[in-house]
Amino acid sequence: MLLLFTSFHEANAQQKISGTVVDEAGMSVPGANVIVQGTTTGTVTDFDGNFSLNASSGDVLVVSYVGYLNQSVTVGNATSITITLKEDAAQLDEVVVIGYGTAKKSDLTGAVAQVTAKSFEDQPLVRVESALQGRASGVTVAGSGAPGKGIKIRVRGVNSMTGNNDPLVVVDGVFGGDLRTINPNNIASMEVLKDASALAIYGSRGSNGVILITTKKGSGKAKVSIDQFLTISNVNRRISSLSSSQFARQENAEFIANPVNDPADAPYSDARIAELEANPLKYQDLMFQTGYTNNTQISVSGSSDDKLRYFLSGNYMDQKGTQITSNYKRYSFRSNLSKEFNDKFSVAANVTASREITKNDQDAFGTADGSSILRAITWDPTAPVRDENGEYILRSPREVANNNYNPIRRLELSDHQVTSDRLNITLNGKYNITKNFSYTLIGSVSTINGITESMRVEGDYDLIGFNNINFRNFRSTSHQVSNILNWNKAFDKHNIDITGVYEFQGNRTINNNYNTTDQNVYGFYHTDNGTTENFDNNGSQTAIESFLARAQYNYNGIYYLTASIRQDESSRFPEDNRTGYFPSGAIAVNLAKFEFIENSPLSILKFRAGYGEVGNQSINALAAFSLNNQGGFWSPNGGGTILSGEEQTTRGNSNLTWETTKQTNIGLDFGFLNGRISGSIDFFNKDTENLLIQRLVPGSTSITEFVNAGEVNNKGVDFSLSADIIQKSDFNWNANFNLSTLKNEVTSLYEGLDFITGNVNSIGGQGIKLDVLKVGEPIGTFWGYKALGTWKSTDDIPVDSDGAPVAQPGDERFDLDPDNNNERKLQTIGSGLPTLTWGFNNTFTYKNWDLNIFLNGAHGFDVYNLVRGTLRTNGGNRSYLATDANSRWTPENETDIPKAGSANLLNTSRWVEKGDFIRLSNLKVGYTFSEDAIKGIQNLQLYASGQNVFLITDYSGYDPEVSSQVRTNNGAASNADSGAGIDIGAYPNPVSFTLGLKVTF
């Protein structure tokens, strides 16, 4: 009995067991569960994958972690053990949001690009759009460096010639999200639906692509996270122009060159030139300043034992722009709560609120003579900002250069402020009727309240038509209700998933606007002494009702089939044409399941093909109806009774209907080494028909109408590749590369026309329009004259019908039309749409250090550099400010730069430059402290980074990627794509350096 007792005691004596949990690459696995089998005794691995607990030699340790197979290890006589976890391929298969549901990435039949928080968390972001840039194939992102300015996103090209080409943004199932207001730290993942088989589920909303955003949800123990960074920004590039003293000497030389002038009366004395040489006036430096961004993010997240999950987040961002007086502030709050009451019923409630304040956006000022930046570049470089009494100088004392009003004074005295408040409340309830059948209800209400308080200084106190006061109140309310039924069943080797949706959405807007001119009291947004006063009150109300059915089927994970049909009814169209039907279908074959592939290095090989149709309703609420405005007063007899009149502004079109895009996609997904290297390639072709085009009514100069006319084609290739290049215990290198090609082409216009000129005005309204829609050319094509240098004295200069030479030696030479009296030939001279874009993201980790390098580029596009043209006595500029002034054509030196006094034009290919660029968008170095380094802190990271660190380009302006907000005839902003690549002094992307801290308690 004694011997038996002794042996029993020895068998059950416990000892301290320590160990480390690692993955197959030898990397530590923090947070893994280690439990003694059959007991409640257990622990969790620390930051370095280490654990310790008491166990007997005969005990079995069970180790589990999400994404890995459970591993069982007998303790034995060891006191220290290493446990290696193997990846569970089924669990690691990424879940992708596809609209009204989710799917495994391996089950996709459509073209969907996914961008997770992991791919952009190494870059300090204040804008969501920056997370998409260069990280999703088929998606191009371009915008302005102005704080708070909207950024243009395009998915697989542009469809509309005059309408909106922005993709639909869906946040947690709710339509109409504004990326500018979303805190990037709140995002868990983004999916971009690109081909029509994926888009058709959104019907009329999906014509320009769909961006699905899933925000973070709480899980695990309660934790508090703080992300704080400070960014310093500068515009390091400068546009080359004459210095103050060089300009003065040139003005003297041109004055003396005129034989009627006395050299003694030259405008600038030697003393003044010497003074300017010693103390030059650099208006570009005066226009720019050092900007900063202060971003503070605090979040609280976790879950409780009663299955309550929570994520609360607050964000404050203050961005001082690199242009003087420009500023943007954002306050935002998000609350994501979800509660699982039982296996059948769960509820989620999301509340978001934000306030944005934008000050002195340069596009809010008059741009007829170029932007504020262009005005500074072309202002008199010899005139100081203030006189000897400290008062602003209003104009150039010698009426040289652009002779506009002092650009520094204009911004420093103006106060144009736009405040937008947003609130969105979403409830999401799900009830599992049976194990395989569920009902989901999504209800959302949102409101936007915007106020514009503007006092813009444009001229002198005593001049009529300047110093504009504007007060605007804007309110928009919208609601959405989505009813979603889903049935899915797996039996034998068959898997079926069927979704049905009924939803409706409504929107109502009200706009009140008041403005006056000639206010002479600064800092007030109301007046009783303005010369002109205008009041405008308007609003709109729209609604859309939709039905959807989608079926997904796969056989044994080999053969996949997806089909959907959506019906939309929109109030924007006449009653007989309101309903649109949008079908789609896609197939996929998982070739990796075939025997001849199973034993090859390929771990993923899937072929996909799909076709679908989507619609577009992006016209204003009353576009289909005739509208009149007050037309002033008149007297039928030339005197006596005064009557009020009306004039028609819009002619209705009872035949107006849906714009439709039909798209075909063929794709291949591939992977090697158990997914360590993976990627995809897609070929797409989409045709947009019955384009919604706004045009002038034939024979009218002011009445417009919407018509269905014209076709546009977009075709190209999307390619993406991801690889874990190095996987070692203390060193890793992960890389992601994507590339897209695009060819955009207008294939037809209305009424048999070959081309129609656009509506983008040149600087100062000079010359023809800058853009054109032409069959065989892309949207955003530049329109003008082809420049061929200068006419030389030895050239045989053509004559017109009267026998007079069309030019003189030294004049700019153009391509002429011999069939039209040797007039200059108008033609396409460039395009602002890139034909190739790419991004390359690299993340390196070495022990506690991490390094991120992100490059992106765009190629095959042009920039219409009107800044360079304006420096050469164009666009209202009276003086030659370019540094090549001394290289102009003379009889003794016949160059290709037109002679002094020659009429320079803005609408010529002389100002069209290649915009190709490569940019180092992000370079970040960070250090993460070990979990036990500071008591009570789970994670602590310090980092430094640079954004837009360097730019490789031949473009002579600030930045080839940005475009100006160009204006139409009536002063409204033009289509962002018809004006793509046009630079009239766009706000440049700055070079920024950031210091940041991330800490989790």
Automatic annotation (TrEMBL):
Q: Which UniProt keywords apply?
A: Cell outer membrane, Membrane, TonB box, Transmembrane, Transmembrane beta strand, Transport
Query: TonB-dependent receptor plug domain: from which residue to which, for each copy?
Result: 105-210
Compartment list: Cell outer membrane
What InterPro entries does UniProt report for this protein, alphabetically? Beta-barrel_TonB, Beta-barrel_TonB_sf, CarboxyPept-like_regulatory, Plug_dom, Plug_dom_sf, TonB-dep_OMP_SusC/RagA, TonB-dep_OMP_SusC/RagA_CS, TonB-dep_rcpt-like
Q: Specify whether Membrane is a keyword of the entry.
A: yes
Its GO CC terms?
Answer: cell outer membrane
Q: Does the keyword Transmembrane apply?
A: yes
Domain TonB-dependent receptor-like beta-barrel, by residue range, is 380-949
**Could you tell me which PROSITE patterns the record lists for this protein?**
TONB_DEPENDENT_REC_3
How is the protein disposed in the membrane?
Answer: Multi-pass membrane protein
Signal peptide location = none
Entry similarity comment: Belongs to the TonB-dependent receptor family.
Q: What is this protein called?
A: SusC/RagA family TonB-linked outer membrane protein
Q: Which organism is it from?
A: Algibacter mikhailovii
